[in-house]
Amino acid sequence: MAKKDDETRHYGGRGDPVRSMELLWGTAQPPRSRGPKQGLTVERIVRAGIEIADAEGLAAVSMRRVADRLGVGTMSLYTYVPSKAELVDVMFDRAVGSSPRQEVEGGWREKLTAVARSAWDLYQRHPWLLQVMAMSRPPLGPNSIADYDHQLRAVDGIGLTELEMDSVVSMVAVYVQGTARAAAEAASSVQATGQTDDEWWSVYAPLLEKVFDPEKYPVAARVGAVAGETYQSAYDATHGFEFGLARILDGIETLLTSRH
To answer: How far apart are the first and last CA of the chain?
Structure first.
């Protein structure tokens, strides 16, 4: 189990912290070329890693796979990036930087909604980001810090303490991660089983009818029928995300209102 977790999750701090920070912030001296120029740069290597992760997941990323994609020898990558650990740190930060940070008109609620939706969209484009354990040990790159600052500005000056501001943006971030992970799992189930939700239900619905007693479980029967008819599946990730986000914002609004 531990080995499987290692393959599907990335924890910050596994690589060389000095090299990781140099790569994240671009402070390292470029390596000297010792042979024919191959056009290699850190950014090309990072982009190749992101492309592999987008297509196949984080476990598919390796120095060999990246080298193959770039058409170079594996050993040539180590001149630029010492290992997969540092590579994933930079991949994470660059992917976060690809998400536009637009200034939204309106109050804190509109701004925090935009922050959450932007993060949701980011996870849809790069679901492997959910495999990076970034809440406790985030890659400390310029894009990640800029994103944190952008989130905080959504709730700055509305009556929260600094600690409460951090707690609010962390709460929203954790919520978005959870709902995005559920959406990613739903999407991967189609790939893993070769069945769409409709196909899965067409197989199991008649089997369930043989054993399910609606009189014994009347609430489940009533609610399940409405939800199934509305979603046309067992779960609608986008509806769940929007509904839950609105309730979180309602709670924050209640906190602010209680202080006036």
So the answer is: 51
